[in-house]
C-alpha cells in the first residue's frame, strides 16, 4: 500500500516547454498526433481501384471531420480539374435528357453562348422569311402551283363538256350537271327529255365521275408537291439563316463529339420544325427553351479535384432530383428541371459524409451502395426509384461515377455495418482509425502547444500565458483520464480556449491567464452541474445517509460515477453487508431484486470465488451474507465496487468495524488483486466534496487501485488539502492492503500450516466461520472431538 504524496500528484515541470506566452509558439499547419490515421487516409486517397472508399473511425469531438477535410483538400489540389456536367434536351427520346461532360469552365461558357445565339437565331430567321428574295421565290411557287392547278381544272371541264356536262369546283368539292349547247339543263328541262337522252346522261355521268376522281388525284399530287417545295424553300431559307451560327459552335467544340452531335441534331430539329418557329413570339420562346443548357455541375472555380462535405445527406441533396411544375392541374417537367446533388458536384473528386447522418434518411444508404456498385450516377426521384409511383417520368442519362466516398463515423456504426451489410466490406476497404489520445512526451506536448497556438491564430484570441497553457494541458489530461495521455478531443479544447478568452475580455486583460482558464471551467461546470448539486444537498442534509466519521461493522463507503452525457460526477454510496446463520452463501440484494447489471453480477460472483478460496479451504463457507447498495434504486452496473463489497463482507463476518472517514473504489479478481477502474477523478472528488463540507480532519481520504495512480488529474483545491495533510489518497494492490487501512489491523498472511496470525483480520474471519460451522454441525473441529448433545 502507499499513501500518495502531493509531489506524486502534480505535473512535473519538465512536462512543459519553456515559454512566456503563446506568441512565442509557432502555430502548427496540420493536425497533430494522428500519424496512423494520416498514413491510412493517404493510402485510401492514392489508390484508384474499385471499392477502396474510406471509413474514418473515431469518437466524436476528436476533430475527425476537420482532419479529413484538411487532408483531402490538400490532396485534391494536386489532382487535375474535373469536367463540368450539363444536361440538354434529348431530341431522340422525349422522355430522356442527354448528359454531356465538358472541361471545367466550358459549361458556363456554353450556357452563355447558347443564350446569346437564341436571340440571334430568331432574328436571322425572321429576317430571312421577311426578305424580298424569299417572298419572290414563294410567289413563284404559288404562281406555278396556281397555273398547274388551273390547267388541270380546265382540262377536266373541257372533257366533261364534251360528255355533255358542266363541272364546277365549290368549297365542298366538285359538282356537275347535264348541259345542252354549253348551258346547264334545269331540273324541269331534264324531266321533259326523252328516255333515250336521259339514259345517255346517266351513262356519261359515270365517265365524269371517273374524270373527277382522276382530277382529284392530280390536285392532291400538285398540292403535295407544292407543299414539299414550300417546305424545301423554308428549310433552305432557315438553313441559310442558322447554319453559320451552328457551324461556328461545332468548330469551337470539335473535340467533343457528343456536343457536336447534339448541335447538329438541334440544327436539324429547327429546320424540320420551322413552321412553328418562324415569325412568332411563341417561336422565339421555343428557340430559347431548346437552346437552354442545364448546367448541373460548374467546376470553373474549383482548383484541382472537387471536395464536397454534405452536411445534410437527404436523398435529393445527395443524388439530385427532378422537379415538376403544375400546368392546368397537370404536372410537367423537362430537362431544365433536373437538379444535381452532392454526388454530382463531387464526381471526379471526393465526397465526405457523416455516417450517422446518412443512416438517418430512408433509402439513402441503399442508393449510395447501388451507385458505387454500378459505377453509374442516375438521377431519379425516390418514388420512381423504388416503385412507389408508376407514372412515366423523365429519365436523365446516367453518368459514370468517378468519385471516392469518405464516411466519418463512430466505431459502433462501423462495426454494425461491417457485421450486418455484406456490401459494406466490399465498398469501404480502407479503415482509418482516429486516436482519441496521445502519449505525454516532450515532443507531443510541444506539438500540442503548436496546436493551441494555431487555435489562437485562427480564432483571433488573445495570447495565453505560460500558466494558462499549462492549465490547458492539465485539462487535456483530465479529458483523457490519465497524466500519461493527452486528449485528442480538440473540440472541447477549442471551446475552453474561446471561453477563457471571453473571461479575459471581461476583465479587460490583454493576455489570458490561468485564472481565466479556471473561471471558464468553473462557469461551464456551473451550467451543467444542477443534478450534482441536488445530490450534494441531499448528502449534506443526510437525506442520503453517508457516514464520514466513526467506525461501523459491515458498512463501507463505496464510490460511484453518474454520467449525464455532457457531465460526469462522483457520489459516495453506502454499501452494507450482514452475516447470519441460515441460508449458506452470499446474497446480492441488487441481483435478487433485478437491479444488478451483468458486469456487476459477474463481479459479485468473482468476489465469492475469492472469499471461498481464501477462507473455505478446510471448512465450508457455512454462513449467510447479504450485501446491498443502500438508497440506490437504479440498476447497479460495473465492477468497481467489488473491492468495497468484499471489505464489507469481511467486516460483517469478522465483526471488525470499518473506518467511515475513508471511501474505497476498485475491482478485484479471484486472486484478490485490485484492478483499475474508470472515473477515478470524479469518484475522489465526489467523496472530497462531502468531507470538505463536514470538515476535514486529516483522517478523510480515498483508497484507489495502484494501477489508477497515473489516472489522477485532480483540481487545485484537493491537491492543496492533500499537501496540507487534510485529505489522503491511498493506492493498494490487494484486498489485504485495503483491509489494513480501513481496520488499522494487520490483514494477516497464511502460514505454512494453513492458519492466519492471531489478532489479524483474516484470523477473525476464519475463527467466526469455524465457530458457525461447529454450531451447525455439532463438531469441535479444533479438537477433533464430537460434542455431547443434551437429551
UniProtKB/TrEMBL annotation:
- Give me the reactions it catalyses: Hydrolysis of proteins in presence of ATP
* Active-site positions on this chain: 640, 683
A Pfam family hit: LonB_AAA-LID
Q: Gene3D superfamilies, alphabetically?
A: 1.10.8.60, 3.30.230.10, P-loop containing nucleotide triphosphate hydrolases (3.40.50.300)
UniProt xrefs under InterPro entries? AAA_32, Lon-like_helical, Lon_proteolytic, Lon_Prtase, LonB_AAA-LID, P-loop_NTPase, Ribosomal_Su5_D2-typ_SF, Ribsml_uS5_D2-typ_fold_subgr
Catalytic activity, EC: 3.4.21.53
Question: Which UniProt keyword terms apply here?
Answer: Coiled coil, Hydrolase, Protease, Serine protease
**Which parts of the sequence belong to the Lon proteolytic domain?**
550-745
The protein depicted here goes by the name: endopeptidase La
Classification of source organism: Bacteria, Thermotogati, Thermotogota, Thermotogae, Thermotogales
